[in-house]
Amino acid sequence: PGDPEAGELGLAAVPGRQAAFRQGLAAAVQYSRAVGCQRIHVMAGRVPLSADRAAVAVEMETTFIENLRYAADLLAQEDMIGLVEPINNRITDPRYYLNTPHQAAAILEKVGRPNLKLQLDLFHCQIMDGNLSRNLETYFPLIGHIQIAQVPGRHEPDSPGELNFPYIFKLLESLGYTGYVGCEYAPKGDTLKGLGWLRSYWESRGLQHGGISKAAE
């Protein structure tokens, strides 16, 4: 993430911070190796203060592509996957560089490395573009990780909001998604109580708590 106290949220697309990016990536690889995690979020970072987004767009994309290629080559040696995540700039972070799955997909195509994937957070995707079913279908070959939160409150999936998560989970299953779904939300209250949505979902699918089939048991 760079230096949060200096207002940084990633370095991969920030011009002039390439050396710090490589140091941070090396540290992330060490941590990932230690805990057995095969995926690393390569954070793009923010448009520099006082800079106009349009004026620095080309330089930031060039920097991002250069750093992503470096990251992909390093991660390939560890059999790891690099992930890029679009973060909405309408609510969450107005200065974040990478904002939509379309932008991310275009950059990944230019980078051209098979071990770089899209980390698709449906909260951000809904805010920036909506059209979740089509976006999931279109970008499914690029997706390396899914994250969820209700919109607009960013709370549990069964809290009041715009998204129909039982439908989305069924769609992911029909597409053949076998990875993790990260719960990237802020619980409205107690964490365990807030996981009631998951227990209810399992039961609706004929599963025991823990996602184990009743028939298998």
TrEMBL record:
Residue positions of the active site: 85 (proton donor/acceptor), 184 (proton donor/acceptor)
Q: Does the keyword Isomerase apply?
A: yes
Name a biological process GO annotation: glyoxylate metabolic process
**Taxonomic superkingdom:** Eukaryota
Q: Which InterPro entries match?
A: HyI-like, Sugar_Epim/Isomerase, Xyl_isomerase-like_sf, Xyl_isomerase-like_TIM-brl
Which GO MF term does the entry hold, naming one?
hydroxypyruvate isomerase activity
What is the recorded function of this protein according to its Swiss-Prot or TrEMBL entry?
Answer: Catalyzes the reversible isomerization between hydroxypyruvate and 2-hydroxy-3-oxopropanoate (also termed tartronate semialdehyde).
List the protein's name.
Putative hydroxypyruvate isomerase
Naturally occurring in which organism (per UniProt): Grallaria varia (variegated antpitta)
From the broadest rank down, the organism's phylogenetic lineage runs: Eukaryota, Metazoa, Chordata, Craniata, Vertebrata
- Gene that this polypeptide is encoded by: Hyi
